[in-house]
Amino acid sequence: MSERHKLEAILTTNKLVSEEQLKQIASYAHAVGIDLHEAILQKKIAPPDAIMMAYAESVGLPFICLDDVSIDEEVVAQIDPMTARKHSFIPISIDHGLVLLAATKPIIPDVAEEIRMTFGLPVRCVLCTPAELNTAIATYYPRGAIRGPRIEQEQAPKPVPEVKKASVKKPEPTEPMHDEDIKNRALMSFVTFNFSFAFVSFALHYLQFPRGLYNTYYHFPVIVLLGIIVGGLAAFAMWRKLSH
Asked: CA Rg, the chain, in Å?
C-alpha cells in the first residue's frame, strides 16, 4: 500500500474525513500540486494535530507537539537560518546520538545529508503542525538572521563604538522564497492567465475583432494569440504583485 493510500485509509478509519470529502480534496490536491495532507490542512476539515498524526503514521515517523518540547539553542545555532527557512524545519536537540529535526513532511535526503555532515551524527525527522513550526522558525530564525539568532545575538559581546567614515551600507542577501510561497504564487498566476485569456478571447469574438479577418481562416489564431499575450502579461503582473 502506498503512503497516500495508507493515509486515506487512516483518515477514513478514524472518521477525520468522509469518503466524499476525500475525493474532493484529492482532486483539489492534484490540481494545485500539493500533498493530500496539505490540502486537508488548507481546507480545515479536521484539527491540524489529528491530520498531522495520521500523516506521520502513514509515513512511519513520530509526531510531536512542538510547543511541549524544549529546543536546544546551541543546536539551533549550528544551522544556517536561510537553509532552515527554505526547507521549513527546526532542529530540536541531539538525543541518543541523533540530530532531531521537526518539520511538516520528511526532510529531503540532500538536506539531511548536509545536516549530518555539519554535526557528524545521523538525522532523525519528527513531524509537527505547520502553525507550531512557523512559530518556532520565526522565533529562532527571524528574517535577517545570519547564524544562530538568539545565542549569537543575545550572548555575543556588544562592540565598542568607534568613529568611522560614512560608507555605503551593503544590502542584505535576498532570502529565497518558501516552497509554499512559490506554489501559491504560481497558482494565482495560472488562474489569472486563464481568466484573462478566456475574457479577452470571448470579448474579441463577440466584437468580431479584427473585423477584416472575421469569418476567415486567420480570425481564430489571431484571437488566441492576443489572448495568450494579454493573459501572460496579467499573470506576470500578478506574480510581481505577490512578490512584494
From this structure: 25
Examine residue 158 and state whether it is found in any structural domain, yes or no: no
Which residues have CB under 8 Å from 214's CB, separation 6+? 208
Task: Compute, in degrees rounded to 10, the torsion defined by CA atoms 4, 15, 89, 187.
Answer: 70
Dmax (CA) of the chain? 80
CA angle 175/181/185 to nearest 5° reads 120
Tell me what pLDDT residue 155 has.
Answer: 46
Overall pTM surpassing 0.90 (yes/no):
no
pLDDT tens column, 68-91: 989 999 999 999 999 999 999 999
Query: What DSSP assignment string belongs to 96-131?
Result: TTEEEEEESSPPPHHHHHHHHHHHTS-EEEEE--HH
Give the end of a domain, one of 12, 35, 59: 59
